[in-house]
From TrEMBL:
Keywords: FAD, Flavoprotein, Oxidoreductase. Belongs to the GMC oxidoreductase family. It holds the Pfam family GMC_oxred_C. Residues 428-552 form the Glucose-methanol-choline oxidoreductase C-terminal domain. It comes from Halobacillus naozhouensis. This is GMC family oxidoreductase. The keyword Flavoprotein applies. Residues 212-330 form the Glucose-methanol-choline oxidoreductase N-terminal domain.
Length: 579
């Protein structure tokens, strides 16, 4: 029997970047917020020990325990999905701070083209550029509306960067100057300039200098130790929720954090969300937390799963293309090339998660797509994130990946290879979606989330185009050998790619094709907000975190208005159709 607790004003499900932003912004205004986090609490002090690649990068200390809850996967909807037993293609985080603890810190703004992709594509290339199987749609918001929220997130996170002519326009400079130039980033930039491209330093959540944000939180200067992705920062030099928004929320006295609180259901009376049900993972007790406003701020997968398991919203049906929950799941493609050097060595063991150089000439609609068989594009970068010894054994393709030759060649090329990689946009296809699995359940008896996903013709064409551009840059950098990256026949959930999953509870201007409006408020449950990359109508050519942060600040604004207007929030009224 669940114990019903005293009602609160706002409850958030998950306390990472989005949950922390919502809590901080509302608590500063005097709103009482309870944050439910199913993992344990973490602070900077928890990471002040020897760098342990095996513990964090191989054994996934900061990630979700798949023996308790996982997802099932299939390429096609006619296949039977099977459980993901080991983390691979993407890493589902767990614990206070979420993926904001173990991210690299690469922080971008999606382009104006991304937010109005359907309208802009049709205007320039016509209505049938991709074909009818793609669910391309506008996001229900313009870049000008979202721009102040991008900057607010950058101020909070202390982003280090520099402007460039092809990125989204800015009304203010970055809060911090860019990170250090290195021989690797300089070589990439010099090659790009020779090819008439426009290189710039990657925007970074690793601090180029000690920084105090507008809330008074101090983030230390980066030490370039090379242990960012999959690791927490022991210096407090990588911007994360545990050094920014969560301390801000706590200091107000209006925020209560409950860890080890696994939410299993959003309680819904057919009109309003009345609260959530959760299990205390330490005691096994079940609780009901009533609330005036419920905010889902967990990861992409869990936002969709909670709504589906709670019977909220219309599940997406790929056959009829009706319904909205689970719709437009997108990922990313990773075109690129590896450049091998015979006589030159680089200090690749040094670096930071966002130390890199980028060109945006082939991103969004920054180039003419009239004579290519795809839309959008991707950012192309070389990054110096720190090649740790266990997980970095790059050798040319004609070398076997085992045995004595592999060992000797991996030692030889450890300092003699550079990656030129692209993050390619992922566009929604009718057959790529999220749903509940009919067969498999978690440890509490609730259905697992099922992922149905495969690469599309758009993916393959864009991959080929961007890989060719990466090869050109690698050759211009003076490599003795440049090997292009291939795309597999089908998407596999086994090898790591990126943790840039998006969609499932998408935003838009039409309730028929979107689940939330541009404040991330559900169309049909007005006191329920769903915040995160689950709102993306497609995935762009960048890391999603900067856009997630902007949307979280926008949602916090919407929740404040909802409270001030006593339960009324004006909703956008735009039409959204397929390309």
């Amino acid at each position: 029997m669940a114990t019903t607790l005293d009602k609160v004003e706002v409850v958030t499900v998950g306390v990472g970047w989005t949950g922390g932003i919502i809590a901080a912004e509302l608590a500063k205004k005097g709103v009482k917020v309870v944050g439910l986090e199913r993992g344990k609490e973490r602070t900077t002090e928890d990471f002040q020990h020897i760098h342990d690649e095996y513990r964090y990068a191989i054994r996934y200390e900061l990630m979700q325990d798949l023996s308790r809850e996982t997802i099932t996967f299939r390429n096609h909807r006619d296949d039977r999905a099977l459980p993901m037993r080991q983390l691979g293609s993407f890493l589902l985080g767990e614990g206070l701070g979420g993926a904001g603890i173990h991210w690299n810190g690469q922080t971008w703004r999606f382009l104006p083209y991304d937010l109005e992709i359907k309208s802009m594509t049709e205007k320039k290339y016509g209505a049938n550029k991709l074909g009818s199987d793609y669910n391309i749609q506008d996001w229900g918001i313009t870049y000008d509306e979202l721009e102040p929220y991008f900057y607010k997130f950058e101020q909070t996170a202390g982003i280090s960067g520099e402007e460039n002519e092809f990125s989204a326009p800015r009304n203010n400079p970055y809060p911090n100057p860019p990170m250090k130039e290195t021989p690797i980033t300089k070589r990439f930039k010099d090659a790009a300039k020779t090819l008439k491209l426009s290189p710039f330093h990657m925007p970074s959540g690793n601090m180029s200098q000690t920084y105090k944000n507008p809330d008074g939180q101090t983030i230390a200067q980066c030490q370039y130790c090379g242990f960012c992705e999959r690791f927490g920062c022991e210096y407090g030099a990588k911007s994360s929720p545990i050094v920014t928004v969560i301390p801000t929320a706590k200091q107000t006295g209006n925020f209560e954090l409950r860890t080890h609180a696994n939410v299993t259901e959003v309680i819904y009376d057919g009109n309003k969300a009345t609260g959530v049900k959760y299990i205390d993972l330490q005691t096994g007790e079940e609780f009901i937390q009533p609330a005036d406003i419920v905010v889902l701020t967990s990861y992409v997968m869990n936002n969709s799963r909670l709504l589906l398991n709670s019977g909220i919203g219309r599940p997406y049906d790929p056959e009829s293309r009706t319904g909205v929950i689970g719709r437009n799941y997108c990922y990313q493609i990773l075109p690129g090339a590896t450049a091998f050097f015979e006589d030159e060595k680089f200090n690749t063991y040094m670096g930071a998660g966002s130390l890199g150089a980028t060109v945006d000439n082939y991103n969004g609609d920054n180039f003419d797509h009239s004579n290519v068989n795809f839309i959008h594009g991707g950012s192309i970068s070389t990054t110096q994130t720190g090649q740790r010894p266990i997980n970095n054994n790059t050798v040319p393709n004609d070398i076997p990946n085992w045995g004595q030759q592999f060992k000797s060649e991996s030692i030889k090329y450890y300092h003699r290879n550079l990656s030129i990689g692209a993050q390619g946009a992922s566009l929604p296809h009718r057959n790529n979606y999220l749903s509940l699995d009919p067969d498999y359940k978690d440890i509490f008896g609730d259905p697992l989330l099922r992922l149905t996903y495969d690469f599309t013709e758009q993916d393959r064409n864009l991959h080929s185009y961007l890989t060719e551009k990466c090869v050109e840059i690698g050759k211009e950098m003076g490599a003795d050998r440049v090997e292009p990256r291939e795309i597999s026949d089908h998407y596999s959930i086994v090898p790591y790619q990126t943790t840039h999953n998006t969609g499932g509870v998408i935003m838009g201007g039409d309730p028929e094709t979107s689940a939330v409006n541009n404040y991330l408020q559900m169309w049909d449950v007005d006191n329920l907000f769903v915040v995160g990359a689950s709102a993306f109508a497609h995935n762009g050519g960048y890391n999603p975190t900067g856009t997630v942060g902007a949307l979280a600040y926008r949602a916090a604004d919407g929740i404040s208005k909802y409270i001030e207007n006593k339960g009324q929030l004006v909703k956008a009224n735009q039409s959204s159709e397929h390309v």
